[in-house]
Design a protein that fits this description.
The chain is an alpha/beta fold. The chain has helices at 18-28, 47-61, 78-91, 118-124, 126-135, 148-165, 177-187, 192-201, 233-236; strands at residues 8-13, 71-74, 98-101, 170-175, 209-215, 223-231.
């Protein structure tokens, strides 16, 4: 029987961005608004984020040739694109079957709460703050934005594409924190409580690697099995600082 899944999938969060830095500064100063003028999709990597991307690229290139990614899919947001480009440039485009920007891998859309800190959301939209507490992070959708369920819905079609176009291949996906977590939800067949427990345990480190390897002996017809989880050795082995900054826009904590 033909293998359904890619042989390997790596899911990576982009390197530290200028938005991550601005958000931390705003929260540390108890400000309501994150001081960044760019659209969320135009926020670039910070200097440290670029170093993290280079360290990640070096790690992939140290793998044997037949174990490196041969397909790279990435969010069109600049910070993810720059992270993916570091890997693509080191591996070499000629050695890749495909390197494609995919809008389904974009950051979760935050709608009217974009650029607001948790304090800012509670101050400007107290009714939303309360609604989110009641509904919970998984299902809450800010006006003009998305819930985690909305993100999961678009990612289901990404997985359909992987099984249709990239079975047996080695696929690197570069996205955002919510993309990493929502893909985990799908690939590991979690429920709401399971993925939120992982989310509460800590933020996904920038340029960390979560990976799945196809095991033909698993399940009835073989399946992807978790291989690495938020793996940061590509950074630590090169002496590059590890960061776990939250993504720039955010909703208030429940």
């Amino acid at each position: 029987m033909e293998q359904k899944w890619p042989q390997q999938i790596w899911v990576v969060r982009h390197g530290q961005s200028a938005g991550n830095v601005a958000r931390e500064a705003a929260e540390a100063a108890s400000q309501f608004l994150i001081d960044i003028a760019d659209r969320d999709m135009d926020v670039p990597l910070s200097d440290l984020g670029a170093r993290q991307a280079d360290a990640l690229a070096d790690w992939f290139c140290e793998l044997p040739e037949d174990e490196r990614p041969n397909v790279v899919l990435f969010s069109p947001y600049i910070r993810a694109r720059e992270t993916a480009r570091a890997v693509i440039d080191r591996i070499g485009r000629d050695d890749l079957l495909s390197a494609v920007s995919d809008e389904r891998l974009r950051e979760k859309e935050f709608g009217i709460v974009d650029r607001l800190t948790p304090l800012g959301i509670a101050d400007k939209y107290p009714e939303l703050h309360e609604q989110r507490r009641h509904v919970g992070k998984f299902y809450f959708r800010p006006p003009g934005g998305e819930s985690w369920c909305d993100v999961i819905l678009r990612l289901r079609s990404v997985l359909d594409m992987l099984t249709r176009e990239y079975r047996g291949e080695r696929v690197l996906i570069v996205g955002h924190q919510v993309i990493v977590n929502c893909l985990r939800y799908l690939l590991e067949r979690m429920d709401e409580s399971g993925i939120l427990a992982i989310d509460r345990a800590g933020d996904v480190p920038n340029c960390s690697v979560t990976s799945y390897r196809f095991d033909p002996a698993a399940g009835k017809r073989g399946k992807l099995v978790l291989d690495l989880e938020n793996f940061v050795a590509p950074l630590t082995e090169s002496g590059t600082p590890v960061t776990t900054s939250k993504d720039q826009p955010a909703a208030p904590k429940s």
